[in-house]
Amino acid sequence: MTDNRLIAALLGHQPDTARFLVTADGTEMSYGALRDRVARTTGHLRAAGVAAGDRVLCQIAKSPDGLVLYLATVAAGAVFVPLNTGYTGSEIDYFLGDADPALLILDSSTQDARAVAEARGVRVATPAELTAQGPKAEAVARGPDDLAAILYTSGTTGRSKGAMLTHDNLLSNAEALTELWRFTKDDTLLHALPIFHTHGLFVATNIVLMAGADMIFLPGFDIDALARHMPVCTAMMGVPTFYTRMLSDPRFTREALAHMRLFVSGSAPLLAEAHAEFEARTGHAILERYGMTETNMITSNPYDGDRRAGTVGHPLPGVEIRISAPDDQGIGVVEVKGPNVTPGYWQNAEKTAESFTADGWFITGDLGQVSDDGYLTIVGREKDLVISGGFNIYPKEVEVEIDALPGVVESAVYGLPDPDMGEIVAAAVVLEPGAVLEEAGIVAALSDKLARFKIPRRVRLLPELPRNTMGKVQKAQLRSEG
Length: 482
Ligand code: MCA
Ligand code: AMP
Fold this sequence. Notes:
- The mean pLDDT is about 95.
- The longest helix is centred in the N-terminal third of the chain and has 17 residues.
- This protein is globular.
- The termini are far apart.
- The protein is α/β, with parallel strands linked by helices.
- Helix 2 crosses helix 3, helix 4 packs parallel to helix 5 and helix 7 packs across helix 8.
- It folds into three domains: about 140 residues, Rossmann fold (3-Layer(aba) Sandwich), CATH 3.40.50; about 190 residues, Rossmann fold (3-Layer(aba) Sandwich); about 100 residues, ANL, C-terminal domain (GMP Synthetase, Chain A, domain 3, 2-Layer Sandwich), CATH 3.30.300.
- Bound molecules: methylmalonyl-coenzyme A and adenosine monophosphate.
- Adenosine monophosphate binds next to strand 13, strand 18 and strand 19.
């Protein structure tokens, strides 16, 4: 169809009349209609001056148009940069400066980001404008190492970095997972994840497209909608919170889930107890896999064979892992190599260099251990990171904002265990003598700076932060104090 192998693999083979998705209100889109919309949107993007290699930023509510915009951007040869819908105007301002996009796509109702874009002279378009009737355009030829997407992830220094993902990064992972998890045109995926992250956009959507399957495309996670739609589905992908919430709801019985063949979990650790409880209740052993924005999926439990609770399984075909400097229990930082791994961070040679070993392995920052029969277990994280409901929060980014508040001397942000979200964000804050700031005031002051999911759910005021003899803040102690 084209010399754009990714687009050909995702869009080039399904019958026109086959269903691609159905939304919660029953609106269907066929593969023929999807191809049509993508070709038209590619035409609009090119008419708007989007050229091969240009970045297209997109912050819109989850909708089928979001998928059309992703595919059309890649078909236009450009680089898709999806943004969390929770990001504030000031966060968007940073991404605009860093990515230097040709276009920012925003819902017509989004005002703060629009003002920020106007101030920077960045062109803004709505999904409706870009998917309207108009001339179609063919996909632009691209090579395997050309960029298809950039996904921003926060970092230990507090500044977000753009993980670059090539056509081959996405294609190789989609091919491996479609095969490994046995997706076919007969599958119906229950899609309740956001589409601005790897899990919902690349893992879930690319697999459905590769397999020519279809999906029930929900606007977000809603337990009632899940209960309603699950009986006609065959597979679901979710973060652990999906499964713990299902376990607290009596509707998800063995009978209600009889039509399902696969439940996948990832983005955060699934407790072994949740795995066991889910299997006892429903008869389904959740298949846990492990990945990162920078690497796509790295390992997966087997489709056939032992889906071992508490482990993330074996490396995907073509992917290699190793444990760096293992201790006497074999625990060390997981490093990875393969066609799935990012070439680096957008315009950030320094961070790129820091993230790879001298011999070219990507350093995940996760602590792992490999069993004699090759199962990887993630036992912790060397990087200072909180994962709440599958969203990553780098403490430094929140600490920088708290420390900037008048009356604050310093702060430490850390994760506390939470039965629903896995972890929640907590902050310990030291005030200047005489400062009258209270917990609620700190939270309120952060609300126009940081997306809601990064804002601490618990704030403690302390006379000083606990430190070791080297002066390093003891976050483990803060965690143990709650
Ligand atoms: C929503 N809120 C959150 C979160 N989600 N706060 C902290 N952490 C969260 N994850 C805020 C909302 O803004 C709202 O704030 C309040 O919490 C409402 O909570 P609730 O209604 O319970 O939330 P929800 O809307 O039901 O969402 C929870 C969720 C959702 C379903 C777990 O966060 C979700 O879909 N997470 C998936 C994330 C994901 O796709 N991660 C993949 C990353 P207020 O009350 O103030 O309005 S990709 C990745 O990590 C790698 C590559 C991998 O391996 O997959
Ligand atoms: P992100 O950079 O947002 O894509 O998040 C990637 C991080 O999520 C990884 O480095 C891990 O720390 C974590 N992660 C993803 N999947 C799993 C899993 N199955 N078990 C434990 N941690 C996971």
